[in-house]
Hints:
Largest sheet: none
Low-confidence stretches: none
Number of strands: 0
Helix content: over 70%
Radius of gyration: 26 Å
Mean pLDDT: 89
Structural class: mainly alpha
Order of helices and strands: HHHHHHH
Strand content: under 5%
Number of helices: 7
Amino acid sequence: MTLSDVAxxxxxxxxxxxxxxxIYLGLxxxxxELNQRSIASQGVAARITxxxxxxxxxxxxxLRTRVIQGDTNFTPEETLQLAFILRVSILSLQDTxxxxxxxxxxxxxxxxxIAGTRPLLATPxxxxxxxxxxxxxxxxxxxxxxxxxxxxxxxxxxxxxxRFKSDLAAVMA
Length: 173
């Protein structure tokens, strides 16, 4: 075996090593991407959980119940609280939408966020609050929320207790 043959074998082994390293690097990049998506999705879930917990606060629950039941008489303070409730929900929707467009969250996460925002946007009260507050959001978010409102049937007042009792009777039957 000549020195040239040994050099060629060395070059081949070096190229093979570089190829294996590139494959490993590709796998590592893919794993990092999956981890990043997982972290983003966990962030969405944590934020939504926080919103749900906040929504369970008695003063917020009372206010939301009145909206669901069709009440339209609110004090100035309650009107401001309604604006804050909607803002929190829209900011969550906006962030999830940005992450979805960046491929950091999946379609299921985006659809779940929309589904969680839809009941608010279906009520005339929150639609009125949106009309006043929409200018505080980016055009893309305005368009998304407007689309959700257009595609969502307007909610009729609901007696929550009667609906629950009806649902419970159906389950028990």
